[in-house]
């Protein structure tokens, strides 16, 4: 079953002579429970694709079915709702609020949703414990290592119970030990059934996925199954 299905997806920025075709009739599917890596040189359309998959942006043309629902022509408001319901985001630079504790950062998406404080605290604490940070609840990002910050970001991405995690270079700023920790956590979440789409420049990082989709100039030029993907069949 495809949780993500895009067909003939195009994205054009600007108009006329300055128009940039960032995605050119891209078609691909991601199965529920799959872990897909997206690779490709800078400017090949990876971020544009992730923004559309995460319902942060809409395509110029083509269709995007998210869990069977055509979201390509939804309004801003409808997209926000779907996004909050289904998608968790992880970024290379963590995007944590620097003045807030780990706990408060993880609470943030629930504050936005109006979840009562006691329930928020309980869920946030549990999420932080699940990524091994039960003893760092009150530390601020500046008091945590890069790997720990990324674990806070993963905990934050989990509190709305997403079906999909979109990770943009999640290990790009980390040393190799932290990189391994983060990949292990992502693998664990994937084994629990969360679908993951991850952009990376690193072949070794990509090899943790089931499949690697290679982009160039706004098009998919190749797809490879990794050993993990072959073993999974
Ligand atoms: P990648 O993530 O692979 O580096 P992007 O999706 O960021 O690629 O960019 C694809 C192309 O679209 C590039 O040529 C880039 O300059 C262009 N682009 C991306 N975002 C915008 C934007 N907001 N406005 C205009 N052009 C953009
Ligand atoms: P703790 O270490 O107990 O998590 P925090 O300082 O992160 O403590 O937060 C305590 C409370 O104060 C939280 O409810 C949080 O919402 C609020 N708070 C913390 N920092 C700020 C701030 N800079 N602006 C507004 N409210 C804040």
TrEMBL record:
Stored InterPro entries: AAA+_ATPase (IPR003593), ABC_transporter-like_ATP-bd (IPR003439), ABC_transporter-like_CS (IPR017871), ABC_transpr_LolD-like (IPR015854), MacB-like_ATP-bd (IPR017911), P-loop_NTPase (IPR027417)
The keyword Metal-binding appears for this protein: no
CDD domains found in the cross-reference section: ABC_MJ0796_LolCDE_FtsE
Gene Ontology MF terms: ATP binding; ATP hydrolysis activity; transmembrane transporter activity
Location of the ABC transporter domain: 4-233
GO cellular component: membrane protein complex; plasma membrane
The entry's keywords: ATP-binding, Nucleotide-binding, Transport
Bilayer-crossing regions: none
PANTHER family from the UniProt entry: ABC TRANSPORTER ABCH.1 (PTHR24220:SF86), IMPORT ATP-BINDING PROTEIN (PTHR24220)
Protein name: ABC transporter related
Organism placement in taxonomy: Bacteria, Bacillati, Bacillota, Clostridia, Halanaerobiales
């Amino acid at each position: 079953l495809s949780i993500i299905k895009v067909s003939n997806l195009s994205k054009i920025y600007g108009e006329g002579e300055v128009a940039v075709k960032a995605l050119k009739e891209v078609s691909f599917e991601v199965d529920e429970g799959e872990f897909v890596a997206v690779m490709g040189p800078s400017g090949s359309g990876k971020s544009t694709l992730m923004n559309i998959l995460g319902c942060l942006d809409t395509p110029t043309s083509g269709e995007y079915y998210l869990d069977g629902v055509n979201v390509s022509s939804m309004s801003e408001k409808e997209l926000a709702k779907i996004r909050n319901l289904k998608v968790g985001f992880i970024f290379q630079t963590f995007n944590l609020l620097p003045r807030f504790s780990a706990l408060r950062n993880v609470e943030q998406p629930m504050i936005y949703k109006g979840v009562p404080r006691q329930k928020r605290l309980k869920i946030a604490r549990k999420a932080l414990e699940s990524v091994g940070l039960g003893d760092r609840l009150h530390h601020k990002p500046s008091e945590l290592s890069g790997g720990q910050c990324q674990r806070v970001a993963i905990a934050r991405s989990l509190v709305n119970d997403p079906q999909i995690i979109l990770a943009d270079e999640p290990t790009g700023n980390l040393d190799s030990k932290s990189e391994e920790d983060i990949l292990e956590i992502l693998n664990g979440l994937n084994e629990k059934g969360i679908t993951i789409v991850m952009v990376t420049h690193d072949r070794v990082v990509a090899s943790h996925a089931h499949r690697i989709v290679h982009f160039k100039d706004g098009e998919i030029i190749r797809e490879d199954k990794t050993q993990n993907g072959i073993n999974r069949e």
